[in-house]
Amino acid sequence: MGSATTLALSSTAASLDATAGVDLGVAGDLFAAARAIGGSPQLSSALSDSAAPATARAKVVTDVFGAVLSPVSVELLTAVVAQRWSRTADLVEAVEELAVRSAAIAEPGADVEGDLFRFSRTVAENGDLELALGSRMGDESAKGALVSRLLEGRAAASSTLIASSLVQQPRDRRVRVLLQWAMRLVADQRGSTVATVVSAAPLSDAQVERLRAALSARYGTEISVNTRIDPHVVGGLRVQIADDVIDASISTRLADLRQRLAG
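^ thats the sequence. predicted structure below, dont judge the formating
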């Protein structure tokens, strides 16, 4: 990620935090705008052209989206195009990021990280589903409709919107990568960090809460815990937080022992 994009993302996130009236309608608008911009090289180039005055880029937003999106959505899009982006693709991703963050704001009590994590596991465990959602063939809106049907009654409206929208514009990104990216954004928007905990057997609610509290104290931030069962860990736990891995599983200790004996 270029330095210009890093600064631009910080500015657009601040704009979102300062904007009132952000709801699921706004999130849906932003996802639709991201698809429109990403699907039109002419539009994406015009909106990311740093040589053009910011007022000209803002006018493009108004001309294209003013009649179809809510005023709040247009305001946020205008904030995005006012920034300087390292690449045109970064602008499209920034609009998607604002959409994900807006969905997290719209339903503050929903377990969006957990919903997305569980759906990512469903995708990981079903090769046909992953292939269907990740294929370049087929209608993208049909993929979104499929995800909506799969999550109906099983996930919050914000979670469903995020997952069904992202699969419609993967831009060479795997579905599970997209979902993990969205989980990190939701956690960041809510001031927490996601920890993925792998164990050989299910953890009780009390165990998860103790682990969450311990990790929160260790990292100095609120931790959201997602759990996954994997018999191959044998015993103990494997915890991953971003690029940090804490591996206390028996399988890893046995592998280390075998390495020492072989060396």
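The CA atoms of residues 197 and 239 lie 5 Å apart.
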